[in-house]
Amino acid sequence: MSDTDEPHESMRVQAALAPVSFPRFHDAYVAVLKELTSRPQHQITAHGRSGSERLNVSFQLADPTARMPLLTTYRPTVVTHLAEALWLLSGRNDVAMMRHYAPRLASYSKDGFTIPGAGYGARLFRPGPYANGRTAFDTALGLIRAEPDTRRAVLPILGAHEGSDMSCSIAFQLVHREGTLHGICYSRAKDASRGLVADVYSFTFIQELAARLLGVRLGTYTHHVGSMHITDDHQPRIDSLLDEAMAGEPSPLRWSPMPSETTLEMIDEVCAHEQRLRANLTVHTSWSLAHTGLPRYWQSMIALLEIYRQVTYEPDEHVIDPELIEMLDSAHQWMVRHAWPSRMPPLECSGLAS
C-alpha cells in the first residue's frame, strides 16, 4: 500500500467502527425499520411470537432534542412518551401512573402494581440502600464533576439477579468530553416499532437534563442494541409507517432545547402538576402556566399534559384551547395536531405548523 492510500484506509476503518450518524431520531427510526423489513438477518420466535431480527445495531443522533419520529401513523402520542420520562425521573415503577397514558403497559405487570422491567426509574432515580441517600443519577453527575473525563458515569439498569421480567436496556452512560455531554444507551434487545421510541425519548431527555444540571453543552446520543427486532403482527403498522416516510416528511420543525436554568426542583414541580392533571383535579390555561414561574419550556410540557387532560376528560367538549397549542414549539404543535385532528382549532386561530 502506498503512502497516499493510508489516509483513505484509516478513514474507512474509522467509519466502519463508528455507528451510523443521523441528524435526528426520525431518520434513524425510519432507517432501522427499513433494514428490519427489507434486510433481516434472522427470522426468530421468542415468547411465542415470530419476527425479524438484526444483531448488533447501532446509531448516533446529532441532535438528541429531536427525539420523536414525525409520522402521523405512529402511535402512541408524544404525551405518552413525555409521561413515561416523568415517570422514570420520579423514580417510579408503578402501574397506576402509566395506565392513564399507556394502558397496554399494565399487561406487563405480574403483581398488578409494579412493572419492574420497564420501570427502571426506580433504579436510576430512587436512592439505593448503600448509596448514602444518593441516586444512580446523582452518583453519575458527581463522578463527572469530580473527574470530567471519567469513564465511570454509568447508570446501571439490568440487575445481577433479574427474573423473567428482564429490562431490555442494560445501562446508560454519560460521557463528558471537552465541555460536551454525550449519552450512550446499551440494550440487550429492543422492539424497534415502539420500544425503541420510548427508550430514545426517555434517555435523551435524561441526557439533556444532565447536561443542563452540569452546565455543559448537549452532545450526541448513541444507542447500541444486541437484538433489534420487530414481530410479524406489527408488520402491517410498520408498512404504513414506511409508506408515509417514503411519501415525504414535514418541513423542518423547531425542537426547543431544555433551558439552562433547569433544576431538579423544577422537575418535581412539573411532576406535581402532572399528578393533579392526571386525576382531573386542576385545569391549566396559558395564563395559569405563565404564573407558575417555570421557564417557558417547562410550561409547554405542562401544556401538553393539559391538552391530554382535555382530550381524556372532556371528549365531547369544544376544540382544544388554541393558546395552549401556541405555547408549544413547531415540532410539538405538529405532533399534537396530527394526534387529535378533530379537536384542533382552525389554523388561522392557532398558528399551527402544517
From TrEMBL:
One of its GO terms (cellular component) is cytosol. GO terms for biological process: dTMP biosynthetic process; methylation. The lineage of its organism: Bacteria, Bacillati, Actinomycetota, Actinomycetes, Actinopolysporales. Keywords: Methyltransferase, Transferase. It comes from the Bacteria. This is thymidylate synthase. One of its GO terms (molecular function) is thymidylate synthase activity. Residues 49-247 form the Thymidylate synthase/dCMP hydroxymethylase domain.
